[in-house]
Amino acid sequence: MRKMILQAVALLLVLVVVAPVVGAKAAPQLDRTAAIQLAQNEVARVTQVAATSQVKGSGQWTVTLKQNGTNANDRIYVMLDSRGRVQEEGWLKNGVLQPVKISKERAAILAEQCIGTGSRARKSGLVLTSETLIWEIVVKGRDGCLWTVAVDAFSGKVVDRPAGAETPALISRSRAVAIAREEVGYQARLIAAELTTYKGETTWKVELVSGNSPAYYRDILYIDATDGEVLAHRSESRQPIETISRSEAINIARKRVGVPCKVEETKTTTGIPASRRLLFPGLLGQQPFSRWYLFIFQAGL
């Protein structure tokens, strides 16, 4: 008897532990095209794909990139997991992998410290030089000017301090509107787009509303005028109000009156919210004359 109980408990444990695993859906795996795109996002210069490899059945990819103008045997490599996250990246030199010791995030902080208080790293990517692998960071200073800082990817040393800043060109109004439309995700109608200042940054303020959609949407976006980054996004929405039918309005009115009555007229008002007005003749108590009573039913009641 005890043996049978133990066997039943063991079977229950198997069902509890194994069943969720069997029923779980396999996560989508990264394909080669997506892996190449993600790898090229990690570099700052133009590169060509030198090779790709995948751990079979895992969705993990290694992409090696050749940068124009560098030594023939030098490559930048990027290892990605099945979700596209960077697991390792570095310098492939003469067949030997040398992973970076300074992360992209750490390099950005070092570059910001180089430029000063109030600066922000906007773009970063790996660049091969004749001697080492560096992070090339574009930093925007408090004055709005752009600086390019080079940080050694192995030591963290700033190897190239900018002597001067570059005054950035502003993105066009049409480009700012296009960025805003992509951000909201619905068929939008442009209300206004103007240059302004937001928290000290030169920005495009773009206002959009929904077009032919039954629901109402209104979005205001502040877009950095130098690089197109969305700095702030304010939105509001209002769903369409459902109106009751004529027959529903009549039934409600009759219940409110409480006595037999005849519908003389029904009208609907325009605007939001919609309502229905119904007119009834009625005699109440011993009153010697007839009166009209007006009932108003707000939509959705």
Q: How does this structure look, described?
A:
- There is one protein chain.
- This protein has helices at residues 2-23, 32-40, 104-115, 173-184, 246-257, and strands at 47-55, 60-67, 74-80, 86-93, 96-99, 120-128, 133-140, 146-152, 158-160, 188-198, 201-210, 216-224, 230-238, 265-268, 275-282, 291-298.
- It is α+β, with helices and mostly antiparallel strands and 301 residues long.
- The strands form 4 sheets. It has a 5-stranded antiparallel β-sheet, with helices on one face. Strands 6-7-8-9 form a 4-stranded antiparallel β-sheet. It has a 4-stranded antiparallel β-sheet with strand order 10-11-12-13, covered by helices on one side.
- The longest helix is centred in the first third of the chain and has 22 residues, at 2-23.
- It is elongated.
The biggest sheet amounts to: 5 strands, antiparallel
Regions with pLDDT < 50 over 5+ consecutive residues? 1-24, 270-294, 296-301
Count of distinct strands: 16
User: Within the CATH hierarchy, at the fold level, what is the topology of the largest domain?
Assistant: SHC Adaptor Protein
Tally of helical runs: 5
- Shape by Cα distribution: elongated
Beta strand %? 35-45%
Distance between the termini: 65 Å
**Number of domain units:** 4
Average pLDDT taken over every residue: 78
Spatial ordering of strands, largest sheet: 1-2-3-4-5
